[in-house]
Design goal:
The chain has six helices and no strands. By secondary structure, it is mainly alpha-helical.
């Protein structure tokens, strides 16, 4: 079985805390030593998050960060619970009930958004 590493783009809808947790679980499952967590996780960024990680390394004189320093930097930059919550509530408002025949689809769509709140 192949486990795919979680990626993070830095969008307002993404939860950086969940990404960090999933990344730690992934790294533990592939038996990565703690001192190598950052070296692997830095390649899991897409888009703006990838640029942010590059800037972290550049401002650290090209040196790798500790995992704890990296997590703190990511949380400081991307943890936006109020913005994320507002965006998810807007998405929740867009889930429409179209009658009993579509109940399963409605419940699935509603729960998908609700679980992210």
């Amino acid at each position: 079985m192949s486990i795919k590493a979680p990626t993070f783009s830095g969008t307002d809808l993404e939860d950086v805390t969940v990404w960090i947790w999933r990344t730690e679980v992934y790294l533990q499952n592939i038996r990565t030593p703690l001192e190598d967590y950052f070296a692997i996780a830095m390649f899991q960024g897409d888009g703006e998050a990838s640029t942010f990680v590059y800037d972290l390394v550049r401002t650290n004189n090209g040196q790798m960060l500790s995992w704890d320093a990296f997590k703190a930097s990511m949380r400081q930059r991307y943890e936006k619970p109020y913005i994320r919550s507002d965006l998810l509530r807007q998405r929740l408002d867009q889930v429409k009930f179209e009658g009993p025949s579509q109940m399963i689809e409605y419940c699935t769509a509603f729960r998908t958004v609700e679980q992210q709140l």
